[in-house]
Amino acid sequence: MEYCYFPSRSPQTTPAPFGQLSELLYCGYLGQTFGPLIAKRHICHNLLDYIEDDEDLVVRQHLLRPDLSYPGLPGTFSVPQNLYSHLRCNSIGTDGSYRIILDCYIVDRTTRVIPQDLFAPYAGLPRSRAELQNASLVPPIFFIQADYSVGLPLGVAKSVADARTPPLLYDSWSPMEGKASIKLRIAWYGYNPWQTQIQLRNRRKEPITLPRLVQLVASGVERFLQHEHGPVVDHSFPQWRIGDGPYGVSPARIVLVGVVAVSSGSIMPIMRLAN
After folding, report:
1. What residues does 181 pair with on adjacent strands?
2. Cα dihedral: 59, 19, 92, 75 (round 10)
3. Within a 10 A sphere around the Cβ of 14, how many other Cβ atoms?
4. Residue 1: what pLDDT?
5. Average pLDDT value for residue range 241-263
6. How far apart (Å, rounded) are the C-alpha atoms in residues 62 and 58?
7. Strand partners for 67
8. I want to staple 157 with a disulfide (CB 3.0 to 4.6 A). Which of 152, 166, 212, 236 is the partner?
9. Which range has the worst mean pLDDT, 39-48, 103-112, 160-169, 197-206?
């Protein structure tokens, strides 16, 4: 399979004019993880199926108007599911309406989100667009707790499925229903891309619920950080060096925010450092 990772660190000298989408793309986790331009391409064109054109009609004609903090979904950017019926809903508002959360608002400006390069299957080939059009991508899956805070420390996430009362808002939801397995990919700055396979069905062949997905993703992230990240291949990012020292990034410093589906068979974790 041919693939690459779209770099989020694009050589822009001035911010792109994203209009009404600026808050979503600059203050949300996807924009902070992959960069605003790459996040826009993923959300608007890969996920929501807007046509990607030179005139950028999505921005100029305000075709996408996400609601910030829709009733029952505080701190989120969401749209009505009935406008994008090709996607599964990933949330429900106080009024009972089905919603699609596109991203979550980063309230604390000091939050340090782990940057990554977005995985793109068959990048640069005609097959790339066709693969994405037929991918049936699921919207981002955010690990929202019952108190509406977003994300779990890695140590808590590893055992969340074993808790008597899981702290997650949608603890009985099976967000990856219909899939038997999926690849978890990490493209950590300074290191080679890494991947592992996650089984999405339990021993009874039933789809796993959100707490179990969180647990499996957390275990994969920990394994990458502790044993499988490999040597540094790019020394341009010392602030993201993996390690246990005072300046290293260790599992104890990671908060697992969610995952984003980047192809029909791959997800990437959204992570930040504990404040």
Report:
1. 199
2. 160
3. 5
4. 40
5. 93
6. 6
7. 78
8. 152
9. 160-169
Helix spans in the chain (H): 22-27, 29-34, 36-40, 57-60, 126-133, 154-157, 210-223
- For residue 100, list its beta bridge partners: 79
Question: How many helices and strands in the chain, by DSSP H and E?
Answer: 7, 12
The answer to whether 186 and 193 are in contact (CB under 8 A) is yes
CA distance linking residue 126 with residue 77, whole number of Å: 31
pLDDT tens digits along 107-131? 898 999 999 999 987 555 554 555 5
Hey, what amino acid is at 261? A
The overall pTM is greater than 0.85: yes
71 vs 10, which has greater pLDDT?
71
How far apart are the two ends of the chain, measured CA to CA in Å?
39
- How far apart are the C-alpha atoms of 24 and 30, rounded to whole Å? 9
Measured distance CA(70)–CA(78) in Å, rounded: 7
Q: Which of 141, 135, 126 is nearest to 263 (CA)?
A: 135
